[in-house]
Design a protein that fits this description.
There is one protein chain. The chain is about 15% helix and about 50% strand. The protein has about 240 residues and is mostly beta strands. The chain is globular, with a radius of gyration of 19 Å.
Length: about 240
């Protein structure tokens, strides 16, 4: 049985199908309606839909997106003179989540998490500094602002967690969070000998400690442990 998430308060008629393992996003575009999509994510579309690629926000912001794990280009799809359907599939198998921006708060998203957005939504990179360096993750997060619809993806299922107070997440499982949440990266158990022993022997490492009130989205799986699992089975040249 296919798991389907339907339209909520979106300006677009959409469905997220085949979630949470192999989610795809189906958009029903109205005449002259435009949506921005991560480059290469289009799977299929009606012949009446027109596409053009552009550097989002100019060259410098485009380079920033590239450093953040996104493509230098984004694709714009427009239903020219009649309605049309557009099907979008992220590169990594997993889930898709919709978020409605009303201008009151921004959203922080893991690099490579962008799927699609309204033209009125702005997407910029935000340098994490030492927090990103010591976490072993990308040095950049995507900061999403403005008003309109935004869809982001994960590896594995997406779990939404309402945070009020304090919450701790392994850095490899973070997908997105509202910017009302403050966070810091730390070693699980602290920097003492006991903390290092707990982290190493327990198989755990760096975590993000969130504080405040807001929504947090995590993924049910990590991609890099899967890659490491397959590493010994790679064919090698003798």
């Amino acid at each position: 049985m296919t798991n389907t998430k339907s339209t909520t308060n979106s300006e677009f008629a959409y469905q997220i199908e085949h979630a949470p393992a192999y989610a795809s996003l189906s958009l029903k575009l109205k005449p002259n309606q435009t949506v921005r999509v991560e480059s290469g994510a289009m799977a299929a579309m009606d012949g009446s839909i027109q596409m053009k690629s552009k550097v989002k926000g100019g060259l410098m912001k485009g380079i920033g997106r590239m450093l953040g794990g996104e493509s230098l280009f984004v694709s714009e799809f427009t239903a020219a003179d009649k309605p049309g359907e557009l099907i979008i599939s992220p590169q990594v198998p997993g889930d898709i989540q919709h978020y409605q921006l009303d201008g009151s708060r921004s959203l922080m998203v893991q690099s490579s998490g962008f799927v699609a957005a309204s033209p009125s939504v702005q997407i910029d990179t935000k340098f994490q500094g030492a927090r990103g360096f010591f976490s072993g993750e990308s040095l950049f997060l995507l900061r999403v602002t403005g008003t309109g619809d935004f869809w982001f993806s994960s590896y594995g299922a997406i779990l939404e967690i309402p945070v009020s107070g304090e919450y701790v997440v392994d850095t490899g499982y973070i997908v997105a969070f509202e910017e009302t949440l403050q966070y810091k990266v730390e070693l699980l158990g602290g920097l003492s000998f006991k903390g290092l022993r707990t982290g190493i022997l327990g198989g755990e490492g760096l975590v993000c400690r969130f504080q405040g009130t807001g929504k947090l989205w995590i993924q049910s799986r990590q991609l890099y442990p899967l890659i490491s699992f397959f590493q010994p089975f790679r064919p090698t040249r003798n």
